[in-house]
Amino acid sequence: MSAASCLLTEHQFLCSICLDVFTDPVSTPCGHNFCKTCITEHWNINVPYQCPNCKEVFYSKPELRVNTFISEMAAQFRQSAQQKASSSSSEQQAAKPGEVPCDVCTGTKVKALKSCLVCLASYCETHLEPHLTASRLKRHQLIDPVENLEGRMCTKHDKLLELFCKTDQMCVCMLCTVSDHKTHDVVPLKEEYEGKKAELGKTEAETQQMIQKRRLKIQEIKRSVELSKEDADREIAGGVQVFSALKESVERSQAELIDTIKEKQRETEKQAEGFIKELEQEISELKKRSSEVEQLSRSEDHLHLLQRFPSLNAAPPTKDWTEVSVRPPSYEGSVVRAVSQVEETLSKQMKKLLAEAELKRVQQYAVDVTLDPDTASPYLILSDDRKQVKHGDEKKNLPDNPDRFDPCVMVLSKQSFSSGRFYYEVQVKEKTDWDLGVARESINRKGNITQSPQKGFWMIWLRNENQYNALAGPSVRLSLKSQPEKVGVFVDYEEGLVSFYDVDAAALIYSFTGCCFTEKLYPYFCPCVNKGGKNSAPLIISPVNHTE
User: Fold this and answer.
1) Strand order in 142-143's β-sheet?
2) pLDDT of 36-70, one tens digit each?
3) How far is CA 180 from CA 161, 167, 177, 192, in A?
4) Could you give the 3-state DSSP secondary structure of residue 424?
5) 3-class secondary structure, 423
6) Is 251 helix (H, G, I), strand (E, B) or coil?
7) How confident is the model over 478-512, as pLDDT tens digits?
8) Residue 372 near residue 412, CB atoms below 8 Å
9) What single DSSP character describes residue 177?
10) Superfamily holding 1-90
11) Which terminal CB of the chain, N or C, has fewer other CB atoms within 10 Å?
């Protein structure tokens, strides 16, 4: 019998109802074998009496007796399987904490390889073999090992949760669909799984996109901090330079004040020393005269005394010191005058230094600007590099596109700006008339054009060689100490600021403040008419040489 059992396969000893090795196997009249308990319970539920395998119906309940031969074979097979499992388990490592153990192993619990959703059990490599070889078990659904397989059963019907109710958003069993969820939208668990998995994929992609955006925002913030530090370092360096220059000026004025006071003191001391030297010389002469008089007065020689008396009795040649005095110089007001002078000097110097620092600050936002020929008036002549523009006497035959100025002799840059800061410089040397500034995209470009902030222009102009105005609506007359040969234009879009600078003098000409920009801004140029050659010089967009 032992030799014969070795020729039988494992699935031949499995009950087709419980899918386990026979316990008290019985045979039906049709020749199929089942566990006595399994077939009895099956027939108690299912009437009429029918074979679970071949579906043959018995009109009376068959008398079931234990098949001793199969029982002995099953017992021997069970013992052999247990020994094999015990031997295999000893060779395999025990399941570690966190790993799912095999539910069949009786000794050392080996790590499960798969879990069966039909048997609701987990199997190691050895005990999984029937599910891989037995034809009936092959139809079972195997998944990666999981714990708590009981949680996959319906608590109400004790059936596998293999469906999903979309109405109540919950997992249900087959019996639930004919009771509590009869009219609900129910789909197979796999179908809902695929849908939810796709949603998770979408969510994951959106999450990754959000992560990427936040990483970019971190880089943006870090870059802002770096730019802020660069600005701070630049401002500190500029501040140190300004205050160092002011400090040197104060120290120089202090030294000049001290030198002036000391010079006055030295002159006083020199005058006093001259008087003292002269007085001491007279005293020496008088002492000598006094000694001679004293000697003559003691003489007993009548003739000698009378002969010397006239020369000694006459007053010696001395200076009248009555009105002579040394008056200390007056220092009153010296400090006040010196401080006032320092204040005036510092004020001028400070304005100059601040203007230079301000110009240096805005020059860091220099951009490359070129002229746009599609906006240029037909009367204008542009250079090949699009950096110069001047007025020509004849009107060129150009397409009358909507962007072109006509007849006003104006032109915009190719570049536009809708955020941040930008700066550029234009040479206006040898011109008697010009317009410079920025204009918004929607300005009027045809016919007579009114230039003001309300009309979209922020600009200054020169007329008749020395009349400067800011077209602020109304126009503001500008008083400049010198005629600019190069004008710098700076715009801070968010701040609403447009400033004009005399680059060579490092002086602010005029600023439009509190502007509200909502459109693209374009650098704007107008060389004006050439006036028979008097204003023929071009406007030249110049490279920015940063102020040192």
Assistant:
1) 121-123, 114-116, 142-143
2) 888 888 888 776 788 888 888 888 888 888 888 88
3) 14, 11, 7, 19
4) strand
5) strand
6) helix
7) 999 899 999 999 999 999 999 999 999 999 999 99
8) yes
9) G
10) Zinc/RING finger domain, C3HC4 (zinc finger) (3.30.40.10)
11) C
